[in-house]
Each structure stands twice: as structure tokens, then as C-alpha cells.
Amino acid sequence: MVRFLARRVLNYVVMLFLATSLTYFLASFFMDPRSNYLARNPRPPMASINASLTAANINDQTPLLERYWTWLTNIVLHWNWGLSPTQEPVAGAIATRIGASVQLVTLATVLGIVIGVGLGVHTAIRQYQWQDRVFGGISTFFLVVPTAVLALFVVIGAIYLNKALGFRLFYVTGLHSYDGNNWLLKLSDLGQHLILPTIVLTVITAVTYHLTQRTYLLDTMNADYVRTARAKGLPLNVAIRKHALRTSLIPTTVMVAFSIAGVFTGAVITETMFAINGLGKYFITTLVQNDINGSVAIAAFGGACTLVGALAADVAVSWLDPRVRIS
Amino acid sequence: MANSELVVTAATAAEVVADEQGGGLRRTGRFALIARRFARRRSAVAGLVLLALLILFAVFGPMIGQWRFDEPDFLALAQAPSAEHWFGTTTGGSDVFALVARGLGRSLLIGILSSVAITFVAALIGTTIAFFEGWVERVGMWILDMLLVIPSFLLIAMITRSASGTGGWLTLTLALTAFGWIGYARVLRTLTLSLRELDYVHAARYMGVRSFTIIRRHLVPNLGSVLIIQTVLGVVGAVNSETALSFLGLGVKAPDTSLGTILQAGQSVVLTSPWVLIAPSVFLVALTYSMQLIGDGLRDAIDPYSRSGGKA
């Protein structure tokens, strides 16, 4: 097991290194930090533009390979992810945003998985009955509604509700607005801010898991070993619980593990809508500011999350699936 | 109902004619069967009708409207819907009806083109990796996994931001294709694993048929139903990505427009002029929902084990 994991980790590290390098070259090719300065009025002198760009190691007059080497050695030797065009360290900026993202997505992800998988199992057992049709229809609808539209209508609804109530029950922007020390007020403040984005994120997550879990369970319910168990006299519910459900959870587990990266970078729209300063919003900022180092660092973080998820999936599947034998 | 059934059979007939190696009675029978099963599902037919209406609107909408999408009416800023401006105007005086007609066309074009291109690339690479087995397969899978490590949304946004003007939609389509095929190719490779063990594939191989010919003649057509369904459902994904990027200001940008771009404009005036937001939202949801209904209907019609549509 240890040897298996060690080999996997080594493989993943090589993958992450190549993927991040690829992103670095793509970002250097498509982003033009010089334009930040050229667009200013009055335009700063060329020498000072070059000095700022060189200080952040994003000067397009330095050969790309030289810049790449500087960037790489800084990370490997000093864990220094470089500077933004405004000379702000990228690593620190990301660290604070991860905190906001975690607060935003944790509850929504857990709720989404629990509700989604639960609904999937519920409707698969009742295939083509009214529950399946009703929930299936609702989920299909929400599956295709773009996040931007969903978030916008949630905001409109909340604003009308606030007006109807006469006081501000829901906040539609930010994560905090209370500054005092009373933890009860602090908690309720966080709740008032979090509830709307949590609803949006939960709906998006849950409908995907509902529809896929339903399909997986239906696939395994028709499998030979479940039919054999039924033929030997096992009641349907027990057969599903003991045989079908366990196998059908394997692909879902893989999906959950691989969604870890999406948890951080996938909430871009929601964060923009609700003005939450998380990683998704930071990513947009880096793009707009032509911040090469910043966007590569976010991509690397997303990649690292994906690989941690992949590793978790390897372990979880070997535990869930009796057919997988490692070591 | 009868009319849409006609559309289905016409489409099927065209498909049969287009399929050069088809011919004979059996093949026609299969497609007619699928068409009949598809037509029996009310939701699928509704989706098809809805899509047809949307396409008609995108094609003829700009002609029947009184304003052009890039011709603001400075005498009517942020006006509610009226006889002059059917869907109202934005704060900049642009006619929302004209914007939506143009934006719907753009979203449709981007969605359909990139979905077809993604299916094509994914089918080619997925089957090729599986067909050659051995080290080609191992290296190919490793590269696919490596490419999957980076969140593709980031790379697409990075590339489309550098594009500008009315050609931006093409860059967006290319970027969506360039990073959209990877996960899908992985799935198709898994499906090909059992196909490559089929007797006639082995036979063709030992008779010295060129590898590419085997892939094109025997492997890809065998994935046909999966490919068709995924292309239809892929449109939903592509339209959603396009909307998200444009909404963030990273996709289609002014002077051109798409549904996501209009949503972005509407976002800031949610309370004062909600019509800027509601019109594109309704059309966007109608577009994606119709595609989903058609895809679900196709899946049920093609799946031989389906029990939902009654008897064949």
C-alpha cells in the first residue's frame, strides 16, 4: 500500500509540474502586462515601465526561458510564487482568499452531496414512478439553468423579500458586516450573508449528483449479482442496500474527489455575483490585471487540489470496491 | 405534433442518405424505429419544437426588429417594453429585442460549433489511443490525465480575454474546443476497449486494413449513438461555459454580444430595469432546456433497454 501510494504521488508530482509549466507558457504567451502601463495617462517613461516589469519577472523583453527559470528556481528554493504587476506577493494574496473560499463552499458542498446522492437513491428505487418524474424534471431544469441566471434570480427574490419584510434579512454581498465581539451576533451575521450563495451552490451541486447517482444505481440494480441475490430470495431493499448501493457509490466517490478543485475555482460566478473575495474572484482579478504569476499560482493550486482528490479517490475506491486489490 | 414528427423523419432520412455504407432495409428500419420512439415522447418533441422556434427567432429576429443591436436609441434610455422597443432598452439605449436576437444566434453558433468539434476531436483521439494499445495507450492516457490537472475554465478564460472585436466568438469557440475534449476522450477510450476486441476488428487488422481506416470504419460508427447524444448534450455545456465567461466579461465582448454579455449588462440594473435581465434569461434557459429534452429523448429512443416509451 505504501509503495503503491508513493509511486502514485511521484507520478502526480511530475504531472503537476508539467501542467503548471504548460500554464506558465500559455499565460506568458496570452497575457500582456505591458499594456497595463501603456494604457495609463500620462504614460510613464519606458525605463520605469521596464523596471517595474523586470522587478515582477514579467518583462517581455527578457527571454521567456530565462523568466521561466527565475520563476521556477524561486518556487523550488524559496517557495516564492512571484509578484503581481503591482509588486504584491502572490502567495500571500492567495492564502487569504483560500480562507474566504473555504467558508463559502464547505457547507454547500456537504449539503449538495448529501441531498444529491440521497435524491438519486430515492428516485432510482422508484424509477418511472411519480417521485422519479417530478424530481427528475426539477433537477433537469436546474441542471441546465446557467449559474449566472440562477444567482441573479435568487438575488432578485431576496431583495423583494427584504422589502416585503421591511428589514434586511438577507445580505446579497460580502461575507461579513458585523465588527463586534458578540459571537452569537457574529454567527447570525455570517449566516445572513452565507445563506443565498449557499442555496445557489447547493442547488448546482445537488442536481448533478442526483442525476448521476440515479444512473449509477440503476446500472448496478440490473447487474447479474443483484439479480442472483434477488433470485436467492433476498428482499429488494436489502439487495439494493447490501449489493447495489455500495458499487454504485464508487463512481460517485470518484466524482466527489475530483470536484475538490472545482470547489475552489468553480464558484467564480457565485463569488462575483455575491461580491465574495474568494479564489474565484481573485482569478478574475489576475486575468484583468494581466497578472501572469498570480493566475499560474491559482492554476497550480487548482491542479494540486485535483491531484489530492485523485489520490483520495484511489484510496476510497480500493476501500469500497472488493474487486480492486493493490499491493 | 404531426409536423414535428415530419421534421424528425426528414432529419432521419437525411442521415440515412448521408450514411454511405448504410443502404439496405435494416438500417432504415433502425432509424425509423428511433424516430418513432423519439416522437412518442412528448417532452422530446416539445424540446425539438422549442429549439426550432429559437433558431427561427435567431435567424429572422434581427430582420423583423425595428432596431439593430449596435444602433442605440438615445431618446429611450432604460425604457420598459413598449410598442417601439418590444423588450425595452438598456441604460445605454440599446434595443433588448435586437440584442437578444443577435445574442441568441451567437450563443447557438458557439454552442453547436464547439460541441460538434469537441465530439469529433474526442472521438478521434479516444478511439486512437484505445486502438493502438501498448505504449501508445499508456503515454496517451498519461498525457490526458496531465491535461486534466489544470482547471480548463482558467485556460479558456486566459485565451479568450486576449481576443477582441466581433471575431471574439470564434476564438471562444476554438478555446472551448481546445480544452473541452479531454475528459470526454477518456470516456470514449474506455468505451472503445470492448470494441477493439470484436471479431471483425481483429479480422480487419489481420487482413492488413490500415489502422486509420479501421478506426474510421469500425470503431467510430460503433460509438455513434453515444456520440450523437453527447453532441446534443454538449451544446448545453458549451452554452453554459460561454454564458459564464461572457458574464464575467472574459468571453464575447462589445461591440459583439451574446446572451451572457447581455446578462452582465442587466446584472447592475436588477431593480431599476429588470427586463434587461429577464429577456435573455428566459431565452437562455429555453435554449439549454430544449437541448436537454432532445438529448434525453434521444437517449431513451436509442437505448434498447429503455422502458419509458412503451413498446417499440
TrEMBL record, chain A:
Main location: membrane
Location of this chain's protein in the cell: Cell membrane
Keyword hit for Transmembrane helix: yes
Highest taxon in the source lineage: Bacteria
Gene3D superfamilies, alphabetized: MetI-like
BP-aspect Gene Ontology terms: transmembrane transport
Matching Pfam families: BPD_transp_1, BPD_transp_1_N
CDD domains on file: TM_PBP2
Membrane topology per record: Multi-pass membrane protein
A GO cellular-component term linked to this record: plasma membrane
Keywords attached to this entry: Cell membrane, Membrane, Transmembrane, Transmembrane helix, Transport
Transmembrane intervals: 12-31, 104-125, 137-161, 194-212, 249-276, 296-320
Domain ABC transmembrane type-1 intervals: 98-317
Assigned protein family: Belongs to the binding-protein-dependent transport system permease family.
Protein name: Peptide/nickel transport system permease protein
Higher taxonomy: Bacteria, Bacillati, Actinomycetota, Actinomycetes, Micrococcales
TrEMBL record, chain B:
Name of this chain's protein: Oligopeptide transport system permease protein OppC
PROSITE patterns assigned to the protein according to its UniProt record, in alphabetical order: ABC_TM1
SUPFAM superfamilies listed in its UniProt record: MetI-like
CDD domains hit by this protein: TM_PBP2
Domain (ABC transmembrane type-1): residue spans on this chain: 104-295
Classification of source organism: Bacteria, Bacillati, Actinomycetota, Actinomycetes, Micrococcales
Key words, A-Z: Cell inner membrane, Cell membrane, Membrane, Peptide transport, Protein transport, Transmembrane, Transmembrane helix, Transport
Primary localisation category: membrane
Membrane topology: Multi-pass membrane protein
